[in-house]
Amino acid sequence: MHEYSTLAAVDLGSNSFHLQVARVAERQLYLLDNLKEMVQLAAGLSSDLVLDEASQDRALACLERFGQRLRGFPQHAVRVVGTNSLRVARNAADFLGKAENALGFPIEIIAGHEEARLIYLGVVHSLPSSDNHLLVVDIGGGSTELIIGSRLKSSKLESLPIGCINHSQHFFPDGKITKGTLKHAELAARSEIQAVAAEFSSSHWQKAYGSSGTARALAHILTLNGYNDGNSEEIITLAGMEKLREFLLKTGDVSKLEIAGLNPARKAIIAGGFAIMSAVFTELNIDRMAIATGALREGVLHDMLGRFHKEDTREISVQEFMQRYRVDPVQAARIESLALMLAKQLLASHPDKEMTEDALKLLSWAARLHEIGISVAHTGYHKHSAYILDNADIPGFSRMEQSQLSQLVLSHCGSLAKNRDFLGQPVNLARSIALRIATIFYRSRTHITLPEMALSIHKKHCTLFIPHAWLERNPLTDTLLNNEMDAWAKVDIGFHIENLS
């Protein structure tokens, strides 16, 4: 993969959209530019989880501005991630097409655990090196992430479906703050946190950090108003939170909140954010929380930098999954090697070399993971493998990447009917054919001397060139390859075998 002198990360959060640009020098990142807009995407989610036109319009206008800043960037030097609101919106797919056109770059929707991992990566890179176990709390617009880690490694990750926007809309819809509404908001947040409180309690970490807008806003308010018992450092304390609670209840209406440090744009959502943070402090036994400058977008940048220097989290995850599901590494390596050889032949003429490199990397991972479903049952194991890959939390992978990995594994044997749409993409077709042929040749799960062979594809017609004499000596492989003709014909794709003399 090529290296780039400048990288950019775009975080499409439920509250704010962020664009961060950084210069790369000797494997270090130096921030060059930062753009932020409070789009409040979560505010446009209806009760049936549909993004309304107004929120889409705000988002698209913002992305057009971001797109101007990113003009001229190579595609692989920019990574765009969407979080909770785009995870849950029923019309997210329709919106994403328009959003990618406005921005000019593809958008990845990341799972909650992956969001948490990237947040921790951004936070820990902004802190002095330490052996302490850290708790990181990130209250966003639509979700709250909890992470425990040490140095660069996160060990516990959780994403809860409570954020400052959806919590404020639900418990303070008219902007009124009373003892009753605030109590109900805090209890609801506490009930979500209680399910994971044992894993994230103070016995598991030495220092707590808050990241992103809500934590920073609360710390700013507490500090400027002297609520932290005279401490001039921007932190959140239990005593300070109690004083802010008194102020919120005394004012009683978010529209009337006038207090030093509160951005007017955050008035409508501060009560929900406060309730969640109060619940976090109560359930996790926190009395003091420092504020970190790093967050999701910095984590995305550092993750990109790691990929360019062969420190790809996805590669580590694949290795861990192979161990967890007791994959036969020798068999996986055989299939990986042959599948990659065949796929390179099919993709040799593709004009986008970086996209080809990415496609081959995903094929490599699919070849190594295609048998993880055997741990569930041998019958229909490819379906179990596909289900695991589509639904598991796999650090480093976006939802789209997991979906592609799952469909590729599902297509490696058996019927292709459920993969018809997936195989409509030429790159997916090439990878699937290569993987299926590789598994056929190594059906015996032993080392064999492969014949010379060549694979070509033109539109929807694939031809395998192989010596007929070799097939005559290997009748099982010959039969299985001939069966492929019927399997591909059922999805309107031609597969033929020709003699290689």
What coarse outline follows from CA principal-axis ratios?
Answer: elongated
Low-pLDDT segments, ≥5 res:
none
CATH topology of the largest domain: Nucleotidyltransferase, domain 5
Q: What's the Cα radius of gyration?
A: 26 Å
Helicity level:
40-55%
Number of strands: 14
Sequence of strands across the biggest β-sheet = 8-7-6-9-11-10
Average pLDDT reading: 93
Distance between the termini: 37 Å
Strand content: 15-25%
Instruction: Please give the CATH class of the largest domain.
Output: Alpha Beta
Concise overview:
The protein is α/β, with parallel strands linked by helices and 501 residues long. It has 19 helices and 14 strands.
Key descriptive features of the protein:
501 residues, alpha/beta, Nucleotidyltransferase, domain 5, Hypothetical protein af1432, 3 domains, six-stranded mixed sheet, five-stranded mixed sheet, 14 strands, 17% strand, elongated
